[in-house]
Amino acid sequence: MSSSRRRPAGPSRARGISLHMLAGTLALFVLIPLLFGLIGGFKDNAQLSSNPFGLPAPWHPENYTEVLASASFWRQVGNSVLIALSTTVLVVALSAMAAFAFARFAFRGREVLFTIFTAGLMFPFAVAILPLFVLMRTFGLLDNPLGVILVQAAFGLPMTIIILRGFFAGIPREVEEAAVIDGCTPFGVFWRVLLPMARPALATVSVLAIVASWNNFFLPLAVFNNPDWWTIPLGVQQFQGQYSTDIARTLAYVVLAMVPALAFYAVAERHLISGLTAGATKG
Amino acid sequence: MTHPALTERPEKRPRAAAPPARGLPPAAIRRRRRLKGLATVALFVLPALVLYGLLVLAPIAIAAYTSMFRWNGLGGWPEDFIGFDNFTRLFASDVFHGDLRNGLLIVVLSLVIQLPLALGLALLLNQRMRGRAVYRLLFFAPYVLSEVITGVLFSLILSPEIGLANQILRAVGLEELERAWLADPTTVMPALFAVMTWKYFGFYMILFLAGRQGIPRELGEAASIDGAGTWQQFRHVTLPLLGPTIRIAAFLSVIGTIQLFDLVWVLTGGGPDHASETMAVTMFQFGFKRTQIGYASAISVVMFVLSMIFALAYLRFVMRRDTQGAVTTMGDHR
Amino acid sequence: MSLRRRGVVVVAASVLLLGGCSSGSDGAGPAPSAGGKVTIDWWHIGTTEPNKTIYDGWVKAYQAKNPNVTIKVTALENDAFKSKMATVTTAASAPDIFSTWGGGVLKQQLDAEIVKDLGDPKAIADFTSAALAAYQIDGKTYGVPIDVGMVGFWYNKKLFEKAGVSEPPTTWAGFIDTVKKLKAAGVTPIALAGKEKWPGHYYWTYLAMRIGGLDALKQAATTHDFTGPDFVAAGQKLKELSDLDPYQKGFLNAAYSSPDGQAASVGSGKAAMELMGQWAPAVQKDAGGGIGEDLGFFPFPSVEGGKGTATEALGGGNGFAVSADAPAEAVDFLKFITQMDNQKQFVESGAGLPAVKGAEEAIKDANLKTVAGTLAGATGFQLYLDQAYPPAVGQEINDSVAGLIAGSKTPEQVASSITETAKAEG
Fold first, then answer.
1. May I ask which residue range the UniProt record assigns to the signal sequence (chain C) (predicted)?
2. Fewer CB near the last or first residue (10 Å), C or N of chain A?
3. Residues linked to residue C42 through DSSP beta bridges, in sequence order
C-alpha cells in the first residue's frame, strides 16, 4: 500500500474511470444478491413476482419480526455461539501448547510429528464424516454438541498449529531465556511469556476457528438430529423446506442468519484476512 | 529451576543454568534430563495428538475398514466382508464417473476463470484508487457467509419463475436467454460455478493481494526504466514473483473441489439427474439416505486417495521450489 | 506454576462440561408417566395446509387436556424428513413419534430397534385392516395410520376440454393420445417434481403393475431380480411418455410442494395433470391456489395385453410410529389423534382419507369420495415401492427411474441397476 503512494502522480483520468467501472460492475455482482435478499424479505410473495426490482409497497416488516420473535431462531444462534466458542477455546489451547513444543523443544521425531499434523491440511473433511458418525455413535456423542466441538477442534489443529508455530518461532529466544534464568518452568515460560506475546496470532487463529465453526454444515447435519441442537446453517436449510411456499419469509430468515457473520467480519476483518493469508502461504 | 530441554540448541545453552545434581554420575543426569524433557514435550503435544489421532487419523482407517463390507450401518460393527466389491461397483458406476467429470470441470473453470479474475482484481485494487478499501471489504464479504446461506439465497435467485436472474433477463428484453438454471443439465454446472465464483473469488483476491504486496515495488520500477510496458512488467516481473501464491491458490482450489458438498447439497442436491453431483454428495446420498454405509465408505476412501495422490504429486512436481524455500526458512529456527 | 497448569486443565475441562449438558428427551429411556413433566418429540411432514393447522391444533388440544405433557413439533419437508430418518435409524435414536409409511423402511427401523411394538391396535382405534396392513410386521403392529389412499391421476377438466378430450383415458394408448392432444393445444400435460424423484417412481411402478401384475413385484422382492421383460417393458412405456416431453419447464429441479413445484403447477392451472396420492388436492390448494371444481380424478390406465388390471391400486397412507424408548404418553397421543372427532376433522379438511372405520361419512370432496370408492373396490394393493423395499433398493428405484425420465438411462439400465442394488444390498 505504501508503495502506491510512491507512484508518480496521477494515472490518466480515463484509466481511473475505467478502473472504477470494472470494480463497480463486480461490486454490483456481489451486492445485488444480498440486496435482493434484504429487500425481498420486506415483500410478500405476490410482490416478489410482480415487483421484483422496486422497493416493497407496502413494506412487510413482519417477515423479519416474526423470525426475530421465534424461540427457535435464537436457540440456533445460541447453539452456534456455544459451539463456535467452545471449539475455539479448545483448538487454540491445544494448538498453542503443541506449537510451543514444536517451536521451542528439540526432540526426536519432531519434524515427522509436525509433518503428520500438516498433512491434515490435505485431508478432505468429507472423507471422515461417515466414520466420525459411527465413532460418535459408539461414544454416545450424537445429538451432543461435544460431537461437533471435538471434531471441529481436531480438524482445526493443523492450520492453527502451523500458524502458531511460525509465530512462536519468530519470538526472540532472549525473551524467554531471561524467564528461564528467573526460574520459570517450561510451562511458566509458555503461559507467562510466550502466550501474552502471541496475542495477535491467537486473535487471528481464534477468528479463523470461529468463522469455520459458525459456517460448518456437514458435521452438524450428521451429528444433530434433535432440533434443539441445530445451528444456524441447519436451521436455514430446514426453514427453507418448511416454508417452501413462503419465499419472502425464507429470504428474511436468510438475511437475519447472515447478520452475525457479517457483523463479526466487520469487527475482525483484519485478523481474518491475516490468518487466511498466513494459513494459506504457510500451509 | 531451569529445564534443560527448553531449547532447540541444547549445546549452546549455558551449562551453569542447569541445576547442580549432587552425587549423580553425568550419564544418569543426562538420562534423567532427557526423560524429564520428553515428559514435558509429551505434556504439551499429547492432548493435541490424541484428539488429532482419534478424530482425524482414525476415521480414515475406519473408512478403509468399513469399505470392505456390505453394511447398512445398523447395530455394532459390520460383519459381511465382501473385499473390494464396493470399489468395483463404484468404479463401474455412471454416477461416480459423472462426479469425476464434474470435479474436473470445476477445477478447470476455477483455474481458467476464477483465479485469473481474482488475480486481475488484486492487481487492480493494488493501484491507487478511491474506495479501494471499501471494494476489498465488499469483495471478500461473501466468503464469510456460510455455504448454506449462500445456497438458499441463490436457489431462490435462480428459480425459473420468480427468480431474480430470469426477471432481470426479462426486464432487459433477453427473454430467449431465460433458463431453468438449476433444472437444466446443460446450465446447472455453469450456474453452480457462478455461485462458487461469487462466494470464493474474494478469498483468492485477498491471497493475491498479500502476495502482490510482498513484491518490492522497486522491481517494477526497474523494469519500467528498462522500457518494459505494463503488460511486459506483468508478464515478466509480477507474474513470476506471484508464482508461489498462484500455485498455492490452485492447490487450495483443487483440494476444495474434491470435497465440495454444502453448496451443491443446498442448491441442487446433485441434480438434475446427477448433473451437478460431486463425490461428497454421492457419498452422503449413499451413506445417509440409502444407508449403504459400506459402499459410501468406499467413496470416502477414493476421495482420500485422490487428494493424497494429488497433494503429494503437486508438492513434488509443482511446488517443489516453493517448499524448498519454505524448508530453508524453517531451517532458520531449527 | 503447577497451579497455572491446573488452571488450563480446568478451563479445558469446563469447556467439555459446558458442551455436555443434557440433550433433551432423546435416548433418555422411558420417562415416568404419572404426573411428572413429559416432553414428546413429534416429527411429521405436514408442512403444508391443512395438515399444518390441524396438527398444531391437536397438539394444543392434547396439551390442554394433559398439562404435564409438552409436545415439541418438528415439521420437515418430505425429502428432508426421509434423509433425516435414515440418519436417525443408523444412529439408533429416534424422535418419540415420527411419520412412517410402513413397509421395508419400517422393517429396517425395527431391525435398528428404534420402534415400539404398539400391542393391540384395537386399543388405539378401530382401523380398517387395509390401512393398518403396511405397519404390521410378523403379526405385530409398529405404527398406526392417520389416513390411507391411493395414487392416481389428478386432472384439470377445463384443460382436458380445451384439448378436445372429453373422457379421461382408460388405456395407456388413450393416455398417450391425451398427452399428445394436450401438447397440441399448447397445454403442459403433466407436472412432475423431478428433484424429489419419488413422484416419478409412481409411473414406473404402476406400469410394472399393469404389465407384469402384482405378483411380478412380489416375486421380485424376494428374488431381487427386476430384469424380467415386464419390468423392461414398463421402462419402455415410461420412456415413450417422456419422449413426448410432457412435463413442465424446469421439472428436473422442481420440488413437490414449493411455489414453482409439481403441486403448484396443477393447482394454478398451468399443467393439466399429475400422478399423485390422495393428499394432492390439499397440497395443490396450499401451493398453487387450487382449481376447485375443475379438478378430477381417474385411476392409472390399463396397459393393453398386460397381466394387471386397472382396479389394482398403488398407494399407502401416512402413519406414525413410536420410538422404542418413548414415554407412554406418546402412544396416548396417537390414540388422541385417531379418535373419531379428530379423524373426522382430518378427513373433512381434505387432508386425506379415513383410516378409522366409521369416518367415511366425513369425506366432503367429491374427488376424494371417488378415490375412496375406487380404493374400496380395488382388487389388489401395492405399497409405494420406495417404502415397501429397504431404503437402498427403494432409493435406487427412485433414482434410476428419474434417470430414465431425464433421458440418461435406458429401460434396460433401470432394470439392471435396480437388480444390482437389490442383489448387493437386499
1. 1-28
2. N
3. C73, C97
C90 has a chain A CB within 8 A of its CB: yes
ipTM of the complex: 0.87
Determine if residue B161 is left, alpha or beta; phi over 0 gives left, psi from -120 to 50 gives alpha, anything else beta: alpha
Q: Whole-angstrom Cα distance, residue B166 to residue B169?
A: 5
Chain B from 251 to 280: CB within 8 A of any C CB? 268-269, 271-274
* Beta carbons of C4 and A191 less than 8 angstroms apart: yes
User: How many angstroms separate the CA atoms of C89 and C77, rounded?
Assistant: 18
> Residue B323 — very low, low, confident or very high, per pLDDT cuts 50/70/90?
low
Look at C4 and A188 and tell me if their CB atoms are within 8 Å.
yes
Q: Do residue B252 and residue A161 have CB atoms under 8 angstroms apart?
A: no
Name the residue among A93, A133, A185 with its Cβ closest to that of C8: A93
Q: Please report how many Cα atoms fall inside a 13 Å half-sphere around the Cα of residue A45, on the Cβ side.
A: 14
Instruction: Identify the closest residue of chain C to B181 by CA–CA distance.
Output: C250
Q: What are phi and psi of C256, to 5 degrees?
A: -85, -50
* Cell numbers describing residue C390: 429397504
* pLDDT recorded at residue C84: 84
Q: Same structural domain for residues A157 and A97?
A: yes
Q: How many residues does chain B have?
A: 334
pLDDT at A83: 97
The C-alpha cell that represents C417 in the structure block: 441397476
Domain containing A53 equals 13-60
Counting the structural domains of chain A, the total is 2
Closest alpha carbon to A245 in C258, C373, C370: C258
In 3-state terms, what secondary structure has residue B82?
coil
Q: Do C169 and C301 touch, CB atoms closer than 8 A?
A: yes
Q: For residue A163, what is the DSSP state? A: H
Looking at per-residue pLDDT, the higher value among A63 and B325 belongs to: A63
What is the predicted pLDDT for the residue at B62? 92
d(CA C135, CA C117): 10
Distance separating alpha carbons of residues B246 and B190, to the nearest angstrom: 23
Domains of chain C by start residue, with CATH: 32-145+318-354 (3.40.190.10), 151-314+385-425 (3.40.190.10)
Mean pLDDT of chain B: 82
Return the closest-CA partner of residue A26 out of C132, B24, B114: B114
- Domain membership of residue A275 (yes or no) is yes
Mean pLDDT is lowest, of A132-141, B68-77, B298-307, for: B68-77
Whether A6 maps to a domain, the answer reads no
Cell matching residue C425: 444390498
Give yes or no: residues A86 and A178 share one domain.
Answer: yes
| Range with top average pLDDT, A183-192, B212-221, C125-134, C409-418 | C409-418
Subunits next to C (3 or more Cβ pairs <8 Å) are A, B
Q: Which residues pair with C140 in a beta bridge?
A: C137
Q: Coil, strand, or helix at residue C202?
A: helix
Mean pLDDT confidence for A175-182: 80
Nine-digit cell at A8? Answer: 508518480
Mean pLDDT across C380-401: 91
